[in-house]
Structure formats: C-alpha cells, structure tokens
Amino acid sequence: MSQRSIHSLFKPTSVAVIGASNGNKRAGKGVMKNLLSSGFSGPIMPVTPKYTAVMGVLAYPNIEALPIKPDLAIICTNAQKVPSIVERLAQFGCKVAIIMASGMASQTDEHGNNLLALTKQYAKRYGMRLLGPNSLGMILPSIGLNASLAHVGALPGKIAFVSQSAAICTTVLDWANNKGIGFSSFISLGDATDIDFDELLDYLGRDSKTSAIMLYIDSINEKRHFLSAARAASRNKPIFVIKSGRSHEGVKAAMLHTGGIGGNDAVYEAAFRRAGMLRVNDLIELFAAVESLAHSTSLKGERLVIMSNGGGPAVLAADELIIKGGKLAQLSDDTINELNKILPDTWSRQNPIDMIGDADHQRYAKTLDILMKSNDADTILVLHSPSILSESVEIATSLIDTISQHPNRHRLNILTNWSGEDSAYLGRKRFTKAGIPTYRTPEGAVRAFMHMVEYRRNQKLLQEVPLSIPDNIPADRNVAKTLLQQALDRGQTVVETHQAVDILKAYGLNTIDTWFVSDVDEAVNVANKAGYPVALKVQSPDLLYKSDVHGVVLNLTSDEDVSHAAHSIIDRVHQINPNAKIDGLIIQKMALTAGAQEIRVSVINDPVFGPAICLGEGGSEWDPTRDAAVALPPLNMALARYMVIQALKTNKLRDRHLPLGLDMNALCLMLTQISHLIIDCPEIAEIDINPVLAAGEKITLLDVNMRLHDSPQDNIGRLAIMPYPKELEQTSTLKNGLTVMLRPILPEDEPKHLEFDNSLSDEDRYKRYFGVRSRMTHEEMAVLTQIDYAREMAFIATTTSTEGKELTLGAVRASIDPDNTEAEFAMAVRSDYQGIGLGKLLLEKLISYYKNNNTLYLTGFTMFENRNMASLAKSLGFTVSFDMEEHLIKMHMDLENQDKQVES
C-alpha cells in the first residue's frame, strides 16, 4: 500500500490512452472524447497503430513511441492484450494504469497463464499500480480530468465517491448532475485487484478538497487495512456506505460481480459501525445522504423543528423522526408568543408548526426568521404541500432570501421538502441551485436528517471512556490454552459445558456446577448430593460429534427418581441411534433464579472479518446474524455497552423488566470477558452459549458449546482489528530505583493521561506542542488514547503512587504512514520525573518496536530550545540536523542500519 505510488492517480500531469479509437461504440473513443471535453491541461496521448490521429489528436503507434512517460495510462483494449501492455507500460516508466477490460480473472493466455495474475505480476515487478480491471475509470473535476467511460461528466464539489459497481457510478452521476451536486473525486474501483478501498480512504481522508466520502461496496478484501483506513478517515469526515448482499442470494451475486469473499451482512454492518461509518440501505437513502452532505453544516445538536402548511405531512415527518429515534425540539414560550403574532389563531401552537393551508411566502419567511433567531432548534425542516392558495416557487424564493441574509444561517441546518411533482419541481430546483437540501417526501427529509444524527452519535459513542474491568476479574490465558490444547490432543473439535467450565472460569465467566459420571448408579449418588434442580445429559461422542443428534436432556426439578430418569434418557438415545455408545452421563445443577432473564451469546467465524460476537434472545430458529446484535472483538466496556444499546434499540434484546433482569454493567463485563477469551485463544472457532441467565449483577452461562479449529491459526491475521498488544508490556527500574511499567496506551487511560498532560510545566508544554496551547478536550484525549495499534503506537510509563493510584509519568508516540516507510514520534516526560532515565527508556522502547515492525525510518522534530531531547536522540543513534528556516531540530534514524550508526 503506497500513498506515494497512487499520487499519480490523483494528480497526473500526462495521460496516455492505450487502444484509442475513432470507431463508434469503442471504449477507446469514449475515453478520448471525455478526456478532450473535460478541460484537462496536460498532454493527452492516444496510442494505436490503426490511426494517425484520434479525434484530431496525433496518435502514437506504440507505447515506446510516446514522447514522455505518462503518469496515467488508460487501457481500453480487450483482456487478452492487457498483460503485455501493462508490462510494456511499466518498463517504460508509467506509474498508474486504469484497466477497463472485464473477465480477466477467468481467462488465460495461449500458455495457460491466468490473465489477471500475469498482469499483477508484471505491474508489481516494476512498481506500477493498477485501478481495475472492470473499471469505468475515474473523474477528478478539480483538474478537469474525465478518464472514464461515463456518459456524463461530474461537477466540481467536496464529496468523494468510490464504487465497485460501474452501473451505480453512472446512476449516481445522473442524479447528482440533475441536483447540481459535485464531487472532488469519482472513482470506479471495478474488481479492486490492486488499488482498493483502504488506500483510497487513506488518501481521501487527508485530501483537503474532500469533506465527505461515499462508498458503494460489494465485498472487502483486506479487512484490517480497510478498517484501519476507515477508522482514521472517519475521525475527520463522514463516510457513508451502501453495501450490496443483504440477503444470502445477494451475497452470491456480489461474489460473482467482484470475485470477492461472501461475508455475513450483519458482520459487515458491525464493522462499518466500529469504524465510525454510517450505512445506508439503498440508493434512495444514498442520494439523500449525498444531498445532506453536499449542503449541510456539521450538526451541533439533535433538536428538530418542523414547519408546514399542512398537518398531515408534518405528522408523517414527526412519526418518522420518533420511529428513527430522533427528537422533536420544544418551542420556548418566547418563540410561541412571537409565532402567535404572525400565525392564524388556529395554528398548532407546538412543534410541528402547522401554519395552516393558506400560508403564503410572507408567513413562511416570518416563521422561519423567528425560528432561526430562537435557540430552540439545531435543524429546521420546512415542508410545503401544493395548494391553489399559494405559489410554491414564490415561497421557495422568499425562504432562500431569508436564509441567505440571516446572521444565524451557519449555526443551523435548514432542510426542505416540496411535495408533489410538476407543481413542486421548480421550487426544488431553486433550493438545489441555492445549496439548500431538498427532498421529495417528508419521510425522506427526516431520514436524511437522521443520517446526520446517527453519524454524530456514532462518533460520540466511539469516543466514550470505557470503564476498567475490575482487578478481581481473572484472565488466565495460560490455563485456557493448556485445556484447549489438551482437548485438541484428544482429537476433540467440540467442547461441551462440563469440559468448558475451567476454560471459562479462567476468564471469570460463571458457569453451573457440572459432573461427568460413568454409570447410572454414580449419577444417582451425585444428583442426590447436588440437590434439585438438576439436569441429566447423555455424553456420547457418536451422537454429539458424529451425527445430527446432539444429545438428550432431562431436567429434574422435584424429587423425581434419578435412576428412572437416567434409564429413560439412555433408552431414548438408543431409540434414536441403536448403535450409540453411551460413555456416561453429565449432571448439571441448574441455576434457576426467579426473576432472571434468559439471553443468548454466540461467537461466529465470518469468512471476511473473522470472529464476531453476537448478542440476542435465542430461540429454536435463531440465526445469530439475523436475530442478534453483532460486534467485532476486541471489546472494552464502552464498546460492549454500545453493543448492548444496539441490541436493545433494534429489539434483538428486550428488557423484560424482570426483578433480577438485565444489568448493563454485568452484561458489558461478560461480553468483554468473552472478547478477551476469543482474542487470547485462536484455537476457538465458534462458541454458542444458550442460555445465559441474567439475574441482575449475576450472569451465569448455563449451556456452552465450543467448536475448535482442527489446525493451528494465525492469531493476528484472523482478527479484523488489532487487539491490545499485551506482549509489549515490560517492567523496568530507573536510576533512582523507581519501578515503572512500560506498556501501550489504552482507552481506559484517558483520565490519567489528561492528568499527566496537565502536570507538565508551561515550559515542557511549550516544547511538546511547539507553542502555547489550552487544556486538552475530551475529543482530543480520545484521539490520543483510543489508538489503532495497526498504524500507530503510544507507550506510556506508569507507576503506583503512595495512595495506590496508577500514575502516568511519561509517554512516547508515533504515527506511521500507510506504506510503513516512516514513523514520526513525539515524547513528553512528567516535569517532576525528568533526569532519571525515563525519556531514554521510552524512546528505546519505541525504536525497538518499529525495528521489529520493519519500518524503515523513525523521525521527530523538536524546538531549538529543547537541546536535551536532541542530545538524547543523538546518543541513541539518531542523526540530528538543524532547520534554520523552521527553527526546528530534526531527528532521523535509519532503522535498518541503526546498530551501525550507534557503533560509529
């Protein structure tokens, strides 16, 4: 993944069209026509042996005849010619090529070589990048580049659109041009064989011309790269995504379309949510989202006021708002008094504001002005229904004038809905031209507003400071892994409740008392000692592991004869399978508690994103990805809370309001413990816990089925999100004898890290931040503590104070570029703990980490006044230089040759 290598994709200075043509309905002609008509200022060079000129531009017979190396080549030939063309382009020095041919993955050349594999091989050998194949091309309106086969161009704007589907591209273009909405970039990924979503998100997330990103996705190839890039980009700008394949049939179609892996839709949605993106379900919602993004300011709050000339549409809008989880603003007494002066006596006197059907342009404008002057709303939705008593265009014009001249126009969002067709068309056109979002229906307008609200909520939830797991909750990885390995050594791939008890207890998960007995007499003795209620199960490898029969359970809740019950179970098993081998009976003491609620938790293994945790209520027809809220590990207490909220919000989990029912903290703790178990134990493929008994603060796992992988797994590669790297923790002793813990930073560290930052002296803060700065906000601290370990690292040094509190003494952090070429670091040490070797310890830790990460260079900058930092860096092998113009000291280390630098 190289941001440097795709630079030419976004900023080409010259373009070659391979396979350019004058023939009608030829891709080579369509591309040439679009390039020549879009205003691109660089040379456009058609390559074809068939014509002397293409569309009036001198053509070149072959690639070698080109007068300069093109930054960008567009290959318009059939699939069979593409590999040799890519090889020659790469050898010639071309940096990026767009491939429009389709079907390359399923075709071979005369030697039996797969065309796509061969093309990738040639490109990689010479460092050339590929967009496609099966790409429609790309449009960059800001530089007048239309390197595509689109039937129309794109207007300039601040929205980036990236799609795997060419048909979706042309549909969105048609709609956007009709609405007057423009784009910073418009890119057709095609099969995404080389350049993929992750690299584009990294680029667009940093692109000053882009304020929002829209994605159409069929499938994801690089889960971790995609999520890392999306999480980074979504911190700075909203990302909306539409994903095909919501049904099983749709997944199959998407796989055929792009050749990707068919993952589960609910897991995709969980991944999008975790990355801070907002999913829309269809093109109508996508268009609404584009409309709101193109013209709206960032949302300051969620209060919506609805004003309308009809009660019906206003009620429809209010219903949609409440159903979607939105909030109607409350009108203040002052606002109501002001509205009383201008509205008829029959107006609604509440929100929604029904101005009555004869509302003219003056009534609309005065009402809007009063609302904009008040502090009652964050967004105002203006509805208009056709009426013989009013002119929709005149009203629209009056509102546009009111909004454009109002001093509060940048504080509020104004949305409009002009209902109807012919009578409303011109009004909507006026709003679009004025840059005011407008929608065809009241519900569509509200849904667009709720997209903005959901994005705001998601960002806030993802910035929450998680509670720490209590110290008395165990997490004994060694015990769990030993027991799992013993099961695998026995040839077991399924672990049932009685065998899973000690594995689960190693992570503080409570199960019921379980005994395994070999015969009926022993079962009677154990059951009698255990007391009621108990359950008897058959333990039979033939039934449990090798056939469709999963065992027979008999619950005993009274003084029922245990012996008779046990023989009944065995008889029933032999009726089902006469050849069944009965190895013994399992006895479980049931943890039945009055007033408790039964729920179900599963861990599934998604083919795209790996392990995913599911929370719901269960049932005989339970499908965890349909009937449960889904989240990706790793979970902390805040993320687990977010998951429970999603489950309740979508009715996947219902609070039955039982006396000892759902306790949010207990549920979150259980989910976080399960997450830790899954992260630490790659031997576990899937878990089904049904039921889980929730009795207030007590959570008990009643019945557990754990399926194991039958071969070793790559623990890091299987997870979509890199977990906390516990293996990097180390304890060290400083010069003064103080023992400190060096470890990666955690989201839970935010309060301590804020205290650490505030403890720095004014001089140290000035050196750290290159100037005077105010106290850190929660949002800024969330960025510093909730890091993505896949692309950044922060080590902190902590010790325990005399009061028993953990104290942060110093921190060093570095962010790496997407190429893993260079990491830039910064460091600070608590002012009253300097001079005892803490800075050296932290910087050595960072150097070691990035050397092991195969990063090439580590760099940092400090002020001229911070000579101590420069001296420390030099002693550790950094090359130190002075930038007199910027008044900075630069510290640079070649990590590959760091040992040699230190010796010299």
TrEMBL record:
List the Gene3D superfamilies hit by this protein, alphabetically: 3.40.630.30, ATP-grasp fold, A domain, ATP-grasp fold, B domain, NAD(P)-binding Rossmann-like Domain, Succinyl-CoA synthetase domains
Q: Which controlled-vocabulary keywords does the entry list?
A: ATP-binding, Ligase, Nucleotide-binding
Q: PANTHER family of this UniProt entry?
A: 3-HYDROXYPROPIONATE--COA LIGASE [ADP-FORMING], ACETATE--COA LIGASE [ADP-FORMING]
- Alphabetical list of InterPro entries matching this protein: Acyl-CoA_Synth/Transferase, Acyl_CoA_acyltransferase, ATP_grasp_subdomain_1, CoA-bd, GNAT_dom, NAD(P)-bd_dom_sf, Succ_CoA_lig_flav_dom, Succinyl-CoA_synth-like
Tell me what gene encodes this: yfiQ
What phylogenetic lineage does the species belong to?
Answer: Bacteria, Pseudomonadati, Pseudomonadota, Gammaproteobacteria, Alteromonadales
Q: Where is the signal peptide?
A: none
Its domain of life reads Bacteria
Species whose genome carries this gene: Shewanella ulleungensis
PROSITE patterns per UniProt: GNAT
**Membrane-traversing stretches:** none
Q: What is the protein's given name?
A: Protein lysine acetyltransferase
Q: Where is the N-acetyltransferase domain?
A: 740-896
